[in-house]
Amino acid sequence: MDISFFNPNRTANASAWRVLPNRWDFVSFPLIICLIAMAAIGFHQTLAPMSTLKTEAISLAPSMLPEYALRTTLRMLAAMVASLAFTLVYGTLAAKSRRAGMVLVPILDILQSVPVLGYISFTVTFFLSLFPGRVLGAELAAIFAIWTSQAWNMTFSFYQSLRTVPRDLDEVSRGFHLTAWQRFWKLEVPFSMPGLIWNMMMSMSGGWFFVVASEAITVGNNTITLPGIGAYLSQAISDKNIGAIGWVILAMTVVILAYDQLLFRPLVAWADKFRMENTSSGDAPESWLLDMLRRTRLIHQLLVPAGWLLAQAARVPMRVPAIKLPAGRGTTSRKSTRVGDIVWGILVILLTAYVVWRVVSYVSTGVTLDEVGHVLVLGLITLLRVMLLIAIASVIWVPLGVLIGLRPALAEKIQPLAQFLAAFPANLLFPVFVIVIVKFHLNPDIWLSPLIVLGTQWYILFNVIAGATSYPNDYKEAAKNFRIRGWQWWKQAMLPGIFPYYVTGAITASGGAWNASIVSEFVQWGDTKVVAHGLGAYIAQTTAAGDFPKIILGIAVMSLFVTLFNRLLWRPLYAYAESKLRLD
Known about the structure:
mainly alpha, disordered N terminus, two-stranded antiparallel ribbon, two-stranded antiparallel sheet, single chain, globular
């Protein structure tokens, strides 16, 4: 018998008891309040007048690092939110529309090869004009620069996931008559989530590589320096202050550990429920923060309405009006599709020809044909350097990535270390490389090469870990039961499973390597300069000289090499992964 039926007050008390905070609420609330306070303080600082940046010079005092770390972290988180929104929209259009993909995917190849300095030079004036006299304009320019170092990697990952959704799951979703909107949120986004989160980690860490450039913005003859770890590091390198560089490394370590524990580890543990399998994995990733939030009472009740709204939004049966052709019109439909493809192809070719014509017209004002041939040769040198380094990185990190991804307990230990290594700016190693090369009279063409792949090799590792983490436990159990081991296990089980993820990592790693060549082939420590032959050094030197026709020529040649390389190698491998190596 239900006693509460005779005692209504007992039911009311029980309902009230469910919303009263427990001990986990008292631990969680201070963390939430601190995060809100950090965001509020950071936003308030962006509304300050621009004159405050000139009066407050960057101080190398260690006591200023907490404030600088806070402002840099907020910029990177804002860029991450913008990158996620861009990824969902751009990746979906590129994957779902064949005609849009013909344009969007090559554009993505080009965008990831354009140096961050190239974006800043064209966009900073726009953002400053939006909020004249306010720090907010410079902050948006810095956030945009960081965004360009994060968005492409995440978009490639999401695009790859959408293109490799298992056919059986797609057929089941259509069998349930789910609309495209419902399939997107119920199938495609959950399927892509494990790989996307690992690429978000890589993008967050990769953003540190460009923090120096994004926090010291040059407009004409004026330089706007935003308070942050990047500006602190730039000042320390300029002053040759080794002690300050040590404090930067310590501050970066603390910040990376903080967002690993408070953001990415909870996301990895949460995304484990989206693994495509029928049997549960032996060791699931864990997060003390996620466990604590699940044990809260009041915070959980406050989050319930938001979760309900998101779930209802995903169930909205939004439909795109479709034109149904009468029976027997299949041939006409194919002909109209073919005609549409031809018209679309002609438009794309005309647009490309117009862009090429404008670039050639501008470059020809200050560049000769001999210079163009010289730049093409430099591009070939950098191409060979990038190919060799990506091959070496693949041989090293693919086996280690599989080893880490198949062991969640090991991944939890390696995760913060990998993020720190991926975030470690190559700028900090410039003094070591310059001193060693000059002292022992080494060949810069060889010994500066490791700087190119130092930050980009982690794209391969993180994507392979994501692929191994997402590998269905059903397949692992089947391979174990059939006693598939050794090279046969790699060839028939694991390599096909992680191959789409590896291709994504290799594409972004090669694109990032081209970008990194600009700061890695032309290295400076104080007054000492070490230069390697290559396209990156050419762009760096012409940028320092302010020769814009040659800058545009270098960027155009780099974009051409990246696009052709992706078209001739990575895209065919992508198509092979989509058609032959899907887990279905």
